[in-house]
Design goal:
The chain is of the alpha+beta class. 44% of the residues lie in helices and 18% in strands. It has an eight-stranded mixed β-sheet, sandwiched between helices. Strands 14-15-19-16-18-17 form a six-stranded mixed β-sheet, sandwiched between helices. The radius of gyration is 29 Å and the shape is globular.
């Protein structure tokens, strides 16, 4: 054991020495593009340019040619911190309204619409200043009537449909404490269109279709009240920041303020904060920086700067605690301990971030090794959430069976004491640096990762802190153990923290946002503004689609008697090695437990703790993922440590030995985890969905019974692990080594028998056929009700995939879909709603349909009726249909399956009985699909058919009689759903 650990430590030392030997000079430098100056940080691996236009607008650009797409973020340095005291939630409201269009987009006749909008604004001001309930109700009735008239000339979601036609994926936005960020992922060829639309969007926003959007925000508020994790997070901020807006104002706002919105206040907020010197355009992806900055400079030159005063507050007083809060709710109990950190960019912030990694890094942190690995708690970790002025340092854990949260708290503080005393492994800091290097290399290939880092830097420091981000790895490598110990003793004081106990129980403080009376408004989704026609007519050079020829993209070889599939990594020095078995939990119920057990046992030469540390020291990792019909072993990391990593794993898998104490602890933790799942509404809905799809015996509840779990013995589990590689499997390698080298090394390292064992017979689950409407109901203490529609249809055929894709894009796959526009935009019945026809993952399975609405319980009947109406009769909108097809065409043209994704694409095709890339077939046939095709599809597969309705709600908030009107009601217990 000592020799192995010394070897791993030596490897880590060599790696970190390499980092230190290449000490780089990071400093700001300047350049110009057509007279537009920019800054950059020398030796920045992302080669980012920071422009500041004459009007103060920040533009941040980083090129990445991996795929013909661009991640775009438009960031505003304003969030809940800058909400007016009497209008909390306003920044979030505004975020929603900036999807409603302009005087040219989202309307058929703005001159006719504007008087109605002005009247609505005035009515809301009257509504806000009125306290008499009857008068308020009368005013709101007028708002509803006038809104209906205004909606007759508006076009709901025209912005979203325009972006979909343009080829954008993931049109979205978010508001948080210090930011509001608008997000798109566009094809490279749509950049000029995108920039024009965004410039116009922020030049001339019109706040239309307001009262139905307001209702969507009410629903969002109700969802947070059903989310125990959200309530804990708000309590954490409240306790750490007792005087400042960081803790005293929430992003969604108070119920009182939600009930009294002011369009005037929202407009004032927009005028104050949405100015160029407070905003940034961030692009990461495949584009030309010089051309991009010229176009941005031209499109956004109209913006005029204004003085902006950021949120300022008096310093928070020292915490005199500990401050203890209890949060009640139906989910599993847990504990969170919070400390207040230093400002962004400070050494204190960097040290706090390092402390969180010392405590929790997934492998070799103190909580990982001493608590998770030794199974002293159910699970736990630590992280730092950094803001401009402060950080939130959070240590969290979930208790085991018969373990109090107070006991867990003691265990967590023991880990803090280890840091304060300096009794942790001396090599841990070096290993953290090595793994940070690994993470940095991986992150470079992702446009989303690049854009996210740059956005955070802008929000925190307007980009000035980017030099700290770039030099972080080098700075991290200079921190000594003494530095850590000294800081920990200063940071972790005996009483400067808060403790949040999340306990199981009824939260009687919840007051839902009341349902107002809203008349459905027209969406006019078959209309199109002249503005959108002009944008769509702008020239764009099509992207040539690229399909995978599996015979060329994947090289094949042998690793001993095992087939080897190989894809070279030409980007960096990282590798991923996979062992893939066509065997999973349906073949052997204990396999998932055996894979879990492997994490807690060692060999004759090394403990589980030593093995985990050894992997972390060489910046490598392993996992054993057992699915229902497949098992995948993954070993990954730096290629320079390939042989060490594979040897470590092979030795563990083949030579692991029983550990009765570990098994006893694992059984107890699994029992607790299983009990906790019964408290998780997401898991309960999964169970309902599986019951609806397969019947009483289904994949969800095919698991060990309580008795079977109790009777599991080490020999059975160890045998399953030792015998695993004796079953037929393929080996897949993605990495920089040539095929011949990889093949030889794997053949030596990965020992397999000359003849493989046959797989145990696998269980088969057959989907049910719905013959009548049925309601499956489970009771859960919640404000909202959640409803799913389930129906199984035809057997898989490849020729049907294209029709399904077009139908989903048109009907219910996003914010531009018919379902979203009708249920949310027109009728204001839900915050979240969708409907999808699901394509199976294997050739011998069936297609299925799933719809969803999450609404207030008192809206459930209307929500069900609304979805049923769409299922019965497919509304026709030629404009929406063409947008759906254009979106799919753009997706196919710009989709790039690369790296190890090629290997898994090949396996997915095989499961469907295909030996080719089906995307080409879809692309070639897309132009032939007409509306009548999806109309006939809808009529054949969905309209007039019986469904199983899965309903999760509180039996105190919905009526059984209402459920019986839908179909035959069957109330399911948690035991029936979960199988234990």
């Amino acid at each position: 054991m000592k020799l192995k650990l010394i070897a791993c430590a030596a490897a880590c030392t060599l790696l970190i020495t390499g980092v230190q030997a290449q000490q780089k000079n990071y400093q700001w430098a300047t350049g110009t593009t057509d007279g537009i100056p920019y800054k950059y940080v020398s030796n920045d691996p992302m080669k980012t340019r920071f422009y500041t236009l004459k009007n103060g607008l920040t533009v941040i650009l980083t090129e990445n040619k991996k795929e013909p797409r661009i991640t775009a973020k438009i960031a505003v340095r304003a969030g809940s911190n800058t909400d007016p005291k009497d209008h909390t939630g306003l920044a979030h409201y505004l975020e929603h309204l900036l999807f409603k269009g302009t005087s040219q987009m989202g309307t058929t006749d703005f001159a006719k619409e504007k008087p109605y909008l002005d009247q609505i604004g005035d009515l809301y001001e009257q509504y806000n200043s009125t306290t008499d309930t009857a008068k308020r109700r009368e005013i709101y009735k007028t708002i509803d009537q006038v809104s209906g008239e205004a909606a007759k000339v508006s076009i709901a979601n025209e912005y979203t449909k325009l972006m979909a036609t343009m080829g954008s994926q993931g049109t979205n936005a978010h508001t948080w404490v210090e930011e509001t960020v608008y997000e798109e992922n566009i094809p490279s060829t749509s950049l000029n269109k995108f920039l024009k639309v965004q410039a116009d969007r922020f030049r001339d926003p019109v706040f239309r279709i307001f009262h139905t959007e307001l209702e969507a925000v009410y629903e969002e508020k109700n969802r947070t009240m059903d989310n125990d994790g959200w309530k804990v997070m708000e309590a954490m901020h409240r306790n750490l920041f007792p005087t400042s807006n960081y803790g005293q104002q929430t992003t969604i706002g108070t119920i009182e303020h939600l009930k009294n919105p002011s369009l005037k206040a929202i407009r004032e907020y927009f005028d104050k904060y949405y100015v160029p010197n407070n905003m940034a355009i961030i692009l990461a992806g495949d584009f030309n920086m010089e051309a991009a900055i010229r176009e941005i400079s031209k499109q956004f030159a109209y913006m005029q700067p204004k003085p902006v005063t950021g949120y300022e507050h008096a310093p928070e007083p020292e915490i005199k605690g500990p401050v203890v809060t209890e949060i009640l709710g139906p989910s599993a109990e847990n504990i969170q301990i919070g400390f207040r950190g230093g400002p962004e960019g400070s050494r204190d912030a960097m040290m706090a971030d390092l402390l969180s990694t010392i405590l929790s890094n997934g492998k070799a942190g103190l909580i990982d090794l001493n608590l998770n690995q030794q199974q002293k708690i159910l699970s736990g970790g630590a992280y730092l959430r950094q803001y401009k002025d402060y950080g939130v340092f959070d240590i969290y854990a979930t208790a085991k069976q018969d373990q109090s949260l107070e006991d867990v708290k003691g265990l967590l503080f023991e880990q803090i004491d280890i840091i304060k005393k300096g009794t942790f492994d001396d090599n841990l800091l070096k290993a953290i640096v090595a793994n940070y290097k690994l993470s940095e290399i991986r992150g470079l290939s992702s446009n989303d990762n690049r854009a996210e880092q740059l956005m955070q830097s802008f929000i925190a420091s307007k980009g000035e802190g980017w030099i700290r981000t770039v030099s972080y790895l080098q700075d991290l490598s200079t921190i000594t153990k003494k530095d850590v110990v000294d800081f920990a003793n200063r940071f972790f004081k005996p009483d400067n923290y808060t403790v949040i106990y999340k306990r199981k129980g009824e939260d009687k403080s919840i007051v839902k946002v009341e349902k107002p009376s809203i008349t459905p408004v027209a969406t006019n989704d078959n209309l199109e503004s002249d503005y959108v026609k002009a944008v769509n007519a702008m020239p764009a050079t099509p992207v040539k689609p690229l399909w995978i020829d599996y015979n060329k993209a994947i090289q094949k070889g042998r690793a001993g008697t095992t087939e080897l599939l190989y894809v070279p990594n030409k980007e960096n020095e990282l590798f991923s090695l996979y062992y893939r078995f066509d065997m999973g939990s349906w073949n052997n119920k204990i396999l998932p437990v055996a894979a879990n057990y492997l994490s807690y046992i060692g060999t004759a030469n090394a403990t589980a703790e030593a093995i985990n540390k050894a992997f972390y020291d060489i910046a490598c990792n392993y996992s054993v993922n057992v699915g229902t019909e497949n098992t995948t072993i993954t070993i990954s990391g730096l290629q320079e440590n390939f042989e060490k990593a594979v040897r470590l794993f092979e030795d563990l898998l083949l030579n692991c030995k029983p550990d009765e104490a570990a098994l006893t602890a694992l059984k107890g933790r699994l029992a607790k985890s299983r009990a906790n799942r019964k408290l998780d509404k997401g898991a309960i809905m999964q169970g309902l969905n599986a019951y609806a799809s397969y019947g009483a015996k289904n994949p969800f509840n095919y698991t060990l019974t309580d008795e079977e779990l109790k009777n599991l013995d080490s020999k059975t589990l160890i045998d399953a692990l030792h015998q695993l590689t004796g079953y037929k499997h393929i080996v897949m390698y993605f990495g920089p080594a040539p095929l011949t080298d990889a093949s030889k090394k794997i053949a030596v390292l990965h020992k397999v028998p000359s003849r493989f064992n046959e797989y145990p017979a696998g269980l088969t689950f057959n989907r049910t056929s719905q013959t009548e409407n049925q309601v499956l109901f489970t009771n859960y203490d919640m404000v909202q009700s959640e409803i799913r529609w389930v129906r199984n249809t035809d057997a898989y055929t490849p020729s049907k995939e294209l029709t399904v894709d077009v139908f989903n894009n048109y009907f219910g796959g996003g914010m531009g879909g018919i379902v979203f526009q009708t249920i949310r935009e027109s009728k204001a019945l839900a915050y979240s709603t969708y409907a999808l026809y699901l394509t199976p993952s294997k050739k011998d399975d069936r297609y299925s349909f799933m719809g969803y609405v999450g609404s207030q319980a008192d809206k459930m009947n209307d929500a069900v009726a609304g979805m049923n109406e769409l299922i019965a009769t497919l509304p026709r909108s030629d404009k929406s249909f063409e947008s759906a097809k254009a979106s799919l065409k753009n997706d196919l043209e710009t989709d790039r399956i690369t790296n190890e994704g090629i290997l898994f694409s090949y396996l997915a095709a095989q499961r469907k009985g295909l030996d080719y890339d089906i995307r080409k077939e879809k692309y070639d046939q897309l132009g032939k699909v007409g509306f009548t095709d999806i109309q006939a599809f809808h009529q054949k597969e969905l309209s007039g058919k019986p469904y199983t309705y899965c309903v999760l709600a509180s039996d105190k908030k919905i009526k059984t009689d209402d459920l019986q009107k839908i179909g035959t009601v069957k109330t399911l217990s948690l035991e029936e759903l979960f199988g234990y």
